[in-house]
Amino acid sequence: MSAVVGGAAEPDGLDRRRAVQVVTTCGAGAGGRGSGYQVTGNVVLTAAHVVCGAATVQVRFLTEDGGTREVQGRPFWVNSDADVALIALADAGAGVPGAGSPAGAAVAPVRFARVSKPVECEALGFPRFRLRAAAASPGGGTAVTYRDSHHARGETTPLSNRREGSLEMTLRSSPEYDPERGRSPWEGMSGAPVWSGGYVIGVITRHYRSDGLGTLAASPVDRWYRQMGPQEIGELSSLIGLPPDPGGLEELPRAAPLPGAPELREAAGLLASRVAGQWRKEERRRHVHDPFPLPVRFRNADARLLDHWAKIRDAPPGADPEPLALAGRIDRIVEVYRSIPSRRLVVLGGAGAGKTILTLRFVLDWLDARTPDEPVPVIFSLGSWDPTTVSLRDWMCHQLVRDHGLAAPAAHGGNLAGALVDTGWILPVMDGFDEIAGGLQRAALKEIDRTTTPLLLTSRPGEYAEAVETRPFPKAAVVELTDLTLHDVALYLPLTSRPGTDGGTRSTVWEPVLDELRGQRRSPGAENLAGVLVTPLMVAMARAVYSDAPGSDPVRLLDTAAFASPEDLQRHLLAAFTPAAYEPSPTDGDGHRRRRRQDWNPDRAQQWLGYLAVHLDRLGRAGTGVPARDLAWWQLGTTMSRSSRVLVIGFLAALALGVTTAVGNVPVDLIATPFGLGFALVRGLVVGLLHALVNGLFFGLVYGFVSQGAAEPSRVRIQVFGRTGHRRTGVLPRFRLGLGCGVLAALVLLFLDRVVVESLGLGDGLDGGLVGGLVFVPGLGLGVGSVFGITAWLEVPVDIRSGVSSSELLGQDRRNVLFHMLVWALVFGTGAACANAFTAGPGWGLLVGLAFGIEAAFAGGLAYGLAFTAWGQWVALARIWLPLTGRLPWRLVAFLDDACERDVLRQAGAVYQFRHAQLQDHLAQAGPAGR
């Protein structure tokens, strides 16, 4: 998009109030006429030959009442090769909307485009054949002539006038004949911009009489870049908002709307809003704009790393196009990407060079300019993908469901994630190609190429070069990030620290360091530091350690006794970052209660972060062979040995049933038997222990048998009211599973109560005899089956409008488990109450129903949740066992969210990530070795 000029108004298309007639005089001659357009508050765009040699220039606006308003003009910028000129207006501020031109501050910027295929176009000017004679005034005044405006409409094609390089405009209507031989009826139309789709694509320059009266020629905008030098293009960029590179021009016609039902368009819009909010929050946390974004730059990579330019530029067979000039700054990454016809771009950069920040900038800038028909950029961290076991499409769908809640069913089958990927609504931004397990990069590139999807991919140079050694990545242009300069660092770091005594940047804590770095003969310490402060990561680390933390003096970075090499300096900054991030924050001095960060002990915080880094290292190496980067709350504790996890789950499941059974049996035996309190307590203890043992063994062993890793968070929620008519296909299978499990559990419990307990002399005579046993077994089976069936019936997929952050997913899973417990309590409590009310009265039925409901809720609902749901395993392992052993804090969610606020971690959808892989690897090496 063009730069904003002439005020803060939004870009717009052709505005009739800004079309002008240009009237010139040439000494003693008659002068000439042309057309133009007010592109900013005080600048008019026209053709160079209109004002060439002019002694005076008048710019004539049409007013709303049919009159004219003339403004003195002065040509101040002319390029004859492109036949383009700019006129400065003497009093542009005098205009008001509706009375000539819009007021200067309200003049919307003009957008520029190039044409690749035939498109509809228009131009508004003042040609000679629009010459009119005004009627004489009643007082006998002299009749005058004037030129009226003409709105020319037609079609343009880039395939005509290829040798001359002009843009041919074929008109729908034109003068029927040439009224004056030797002069064109189109005289005066020169200088009028040619518009298409709200963009300027050229400026009308001439009419070839041999082409007939229905054709005009224009100077195309994209050709200006070949006809002008870089300095002139830069001047036009600052004056009228012309993109500084042809890649910044919009390509017309725009791509056809993506396929899919309206539901996909709506889902894409919601996804775009969610993605933008997520990464804007991350940008704020990283202080990207404080004081200003570091100027990360990129340039064309080595030609040996990319495919043929003919393939990248989608050239016709036999063509040999020139390479695209892709160099630029991070704020132009979207323009550069759009200039690549294949829409495939690889960004290479070393550790900490700014690849992740570039993807962040790409996503936000794309979404800022996105139209409803364009795809949504989504960042995918490639480190968790194994291309030998899962296709790219299926892996992307899984990530979209996990991080963005796209599990709802689509109209034509599958879920929204699959539908959006299959129809091109997702623009993959693939970060961390180098983090794919060693030896699998070539397989990954091959799998990515099968999709033929547009994408942006980042990688470290070495891993990518090895992957494309035998075959380049098809149709992919490649750029590489360059180092920050000393000038960049010298502008940035002083503004991040406290001002000096004079209130400026010359006396900050960084000035002695920068003086050493600027010296012609650097000291060894300065040379080491200069080699470190070339990446955004290290500059950000230096800022956090020496600018944000009080009392730190960056001069010690020059000490070669402490830091003998650049590597030592990097390790120092990484090691000092976490303590600096957890420096206790001062209390607010104004006395108001404000939300501020929790003060964690820096040593404990570093220990906990070290455990998390070690956990990711083990988790990744056990799966793909490289450290994992996605810190998922439901995976915490899964790197413990399976036997330890089985013991923890089994113990908690035993505790859940044992305590409730023991407590529930005491009042029943006190009321319904004559044996007294001692008997009730002993029997309750024995029954509780036996039931706990069986429950713990059952759920612990089943967990150990079925657990192949962490349980994924549930992608469903319970919806009692307002359910749609979608078919519930899982109800009957779940009912059968519950029926079988319930019958098996009933037989085991019947054996314990009828055989074991009674053999100990603790029978209470309340078992109902043979009839009770015959009723208990199918009753328990039907009860468990009913619970499973009811919950399956009430489950609906999580809607995309629902939250998908870690805490929101955790809350959704917790609510599901609590509802599961409620259903267990209601089904068994109601069933037991009704059965006993008929035989022993309502009071006894209520008591038994209450006891059965509580026992069922904890024995079935809570134990099931602990063993088979992500929330249950999170509670058992991450909220109880790991804090109990000191490896994680008790307030774990608060700690993780606070780490994001401190920019130690970041949130990527439903998972956390360390802010950089280097920081994670450093903490893993310094973290606990075992436990």
Weakly predicted, low-confidence segments: 1-10, 94-105, 587-596
Alpha-carbon distance between the termini? Answer: 55 Å
Helical residue percent band: 40-55%
Radius of gyration: 37 Å
Shape, per Cα inertia axes: elongated
> Which secondary-structure class do the elements indicate?
alpha+beta
| Beta-strand content bin | 15-25%
Mean pLDDT: 83
Question: How many distinct beta strands?
Answer: 27
Task: Give an account of the 3D structure.
With 931 residues, the chain is an alpha+beta fold. The protein has 26 helices and 27 strands. Helix 12 runs parallel beside helix 15 (536-548), helix 19 (676-706) runs parallel beside helix 23 and helix 22 (806-840) packs antiparallel against helix 23 (842-868).
